[in-house]
Specification:
About 30% of the residues lie in helices and about 20% in strands. The chain is of the alpha/beta class and about 180 residues long. Strand 7 and strand 8 form a beta hairpin. It holds the Pfam family CBS. This is CBS domain protein.
Length: about 180
Amino acid sequence: MKTLDFYPTTEIDELAWPEENYDLTIDSPALLFFTDFQNNKPLVVESTSSVLNVKELMQKEHVRLKFVIDDKKHFIGVVSADDLIERKIVQKVSEGLERAEIVVAELMTAKKNLKALDWQDISTATISDVIRALKNDGERHCLVIDRENHKIRGIFSASDISRRLRLNIDIQEKTSFSKVFTATL
């Protein structure tokens, strides 16, 4: 076992900064804002996980979206903080499920209901192109697929983009008949 020593910081004046210090603007390449799963491990949760546990975990981790995988580690959908709101949990309880027995698969958005941008398209896009796409679609997150290799390549997050640009990006969720209908149930 190695013993680690502490040292005084009184003689230290500088902070380490990343080599690539970009002055980011809305005209910056979209790839500078992209969470690439070839470089960053995706945040995943198993489909059989308790929604109560996942909700608590997401709050502790300060994340609003996780990828849902099955027992073979295949991507089957996403679960967002909006999917885990109390009203949706209570709705499942009213359908006869015990609160503690509700699993992520019952509240997630299945991959067949998701849309994504293409890796080739975003590789030449600016972040303003991505912001416009997010706003037009009313989405806070956007998956990016590599259609050639049949993989989810990564994700854009409106909150990450907003934070890095120091710009308020107001995403208005689109209202659809199905959302209005399920909200009244």
